[in-house]
Amino acid sequence: MLLGYCFGRLFRPNTDIRKRNRTIALIGGMMLLIFTILRYTNAYGDPLHWSPQRNILYSFFSFINCQKYPPSLLYLCMTLGPALLVLSLYSNIRNQVTKIITVYGRVPFVYYLLHFYLIHTLSALSFLLRGHTLSEGIKGVKGLPFKFIIPGEGYNLAIVYLFWIAVVISLYPICKWFSEYRGNHKKWWLNYL
């Protein structure tokens, strides 16, 4: 999030777009270089060391398999570096898809809060629809209260993706409304949502 505030300067209205894209690509490339050097040495940044595997694909997976928590420099470099490179290449595209995506990007915190609670509500409803009771869900599993999870139960990846797409689509109208509301009501605290 802090990087988002820093990068805001690069997206001011009178910024030279080519210079901005070069700067973003340079930063993304440097992040990938830092990641590669630090990860290759296994000397810093991740409790799980990478190691050569039975083939190049699995070795690559081992190399990029970084822990997100506790907050990790390697994880940030490995995820934000490529994202910045893609941003530098495609930030000038304007079409219906980018118009839709931009709605979410204008209200990321509101989207995050809403999706978090919506997904947890859907998870609880799914738990109950599978025949479990509310008391089972509230009890939790091994010190994880209110998780509405039974180990070994779940859905296949196709169903998970359908839920994900449904959540993203269902939050679009709220995000669009809030984006327009924030644009029409110039209050300082709205900038943080």
Main features:
193 residues; mainly alpha
Q: How would you describe what is shown here?
A:
With 193 residues, the protein is mostly helical. The chain has 2 domains: 2-92, no CATH class; 97-192, no CATH class. The protein contains 8 helices and no strands. 8% of the residues are buried. The mean pLDDT is 87.
In short:
By secondary structure, the protein is mainly α. Helices cover 65% and strands 0% of the residues.
What is the secondary structure topology, with strand pairs?
Elements: H1 2-7, H2 17-41, H3 56-64, H4 73-90, H5 96-106, H6 108-129, H7 134-139, H8 157-184
Count up the domains: 2
User: How many β-strands, per DSSP?
Assistant: 0
Classify the oligomer.
Answer: single chain
**What is the CA-atom radius of gyration, in angstroms?**
21 Å
Instruction: Estimate the strand proportion.
Output: under 5%
Q: Indicate the structural class.
A: mainly alpha
Number of distinct helices: 8
What is the average of the pLDDT values? 87
Helix content: 55-70%
| Poorly predicted parts | none
